[in-house]
Each structure stands twice: as C-alpha cells, then as structure tokens.
Design brief:
- The protein has strands spanning about 5, 30-35, 35-40, 45, 45-55, 60-65, 70-75, 80, 85, 90-100, 105-115, 115-125, 140, 150-155, 160-165, 170-175, 180, 190-195, 200-205.
- It is elongated.
- Helix content is about 0%, strand content about 55%.
- Strands 1, 3, 4, 6, 9, 11 and 12 form a 7-stranded mixed β-sheet that branches.
- It has 2 domains: about 5-125, Sandwich (Immunoglobulin-like); about 140-205, Immunoglobulins (Immunoglobulin-like).
C-alpha cells in the first residue's frame, strides 16, 4: 500500500527530510522549503516544492490544485498544475509554486495528485492589500504562549483561532477590548488568530 506523506508549512517553518535514510522503494518525498504564501499589494509570492522520486517506477503527477485557490506550479517556466508531468526514477524536480485565493479564504491545502497518492501542504495566505489603514488593529501576547494568549484591540468582534492546517479550533466573541484564550489543551505548534475584519496574527504555542 502506497504511503501518503502529509507535510505542513508555514512562515519560518522549513522541513528537511533529506536526513531520513534509508528511503523505502515506494516512497516519494515532497519537501516544501518555507511554503507560506503572502499577498503584498497586488503581487502573490510563493515558495519552492521539491519532489524526489525514490520509487522503482516513473512517478506520474496528475495535477496540482487547491480548493478556493488558483494554483500555479511552474517547472522550468511551465505551469504543470492543470496538466501534470512525469518524474523519472531517482529524479528530483523543483516546482515554483504560487497560490491566490478565489474568495475570502486565507487558509487552504495545496494538493499534489500523484499515482502514489495525494500529497498535501497547508497554505496560509496573508494579505495586506485592500485593508483599510484606519481599521483598528489588535495585539497578541505572549508569543510564544504557554497556558494562555491575550488579544487586545478595538472593535474586534468575533475572533477565530486556526491551526496550521486551516482548521478552525474555536470562535469567540470579544465583548470588551481584551480576550484571554486558554491554550492549555492545544498541542505545541503554530496557530493563527483572525478578527472579524480579516486581520490575522500568527502565534506559537510551546508548553
């Protein structure tokens, strides 16, 4: 049974799987190097995805896609996202990968559909374009957090907490200018808080 490898990427997170030896004969390595998408002004920025075929057969990439995101996976300048490509035995390719949301979603999953399974990488899409400069901001501390994190600001409304997979952990109504969120039950990792106006801040939990 072919193994599917799920890798998560966010800002300042670089995964290095090259040190894991030996490789299984049926293993395909998909390694994102800081695959975190930004949106500054009108310019999307992506990251590199390295795919190495350690199997005993030609690897077929069927397509690359993400729900609610337009995706480009460029190999030597050609977008293989809709068409796919072949990767020879032992060959390594590097895809220049970009994503832009088709709606208001800022969290998503990049799926690399191969004949050995679908490999997934989490997308966090940060935007500063179109944000009203007069929109009140909020602050978040401590960061890293242990047992709690406090957010303070004006007119935050309902805030949502997401994990790196884009899964909503909880949704809370801020009735005053301060909200204390308990993080005791959360596993260590990177999380995001988003206010009702769409402003997002990242924080780390380290127990």
């Amino acid at each position: 049974m072919k193994k599917a490898l799920t890798l998560i990427a966010a800002i300042a997170l670089c995964l290095n799987l090259w040190a894991q030896f030996p490789f299984d004969d049926d293993q395909v390595i998909v390694t994102p190097d800081s695959l975190h998408f930004y949106f500054h002004g009108c310019s999307p920025h992506g990251g590199e995805v390295t795919i190495t075929n350690y199997t005993s057969d030609i690897l077929v990439i069927n397509r690359c896609y993400a729900e609610n995101f337009n995706v480009e996976c460029l190999y030597e300048g050609v977008n293989i996202a809709p068409t796919g490509m072949f990767v020879e035995i032992g060959e390594t390719i590097i895809l220049d990968t970009y994503a832009t949301p088709t709606g208001k979603d800022v969290y998503g999953t990049l799926c690399i559909d191969t004949d050995f399974g679908i490999y997934t990488i989490a997308i966090y899409y940060e935007t500063t374009y179109g944000v009203d400069e007069n929109t009140p901001t909020f602050n978040l501390a401590p960061n890293p957090a242990n047992g709690f994190v406090t957010i303070t600001g004006e007119n935050m409304g309902t805030v949502s907490v997401f994990n790196m997979l884009g899964q909503k952990m909880e949704e809370l109504l801020v009735e005053d200018k301060e909200l204390v969120i308990s993080t005791i039950r959360y596993p260590n990792g990177i999380y995001f808080v988003r206010s009702a106006n769409g402003e997002t801040k990242r924080f780390v939990i380290a127990h």
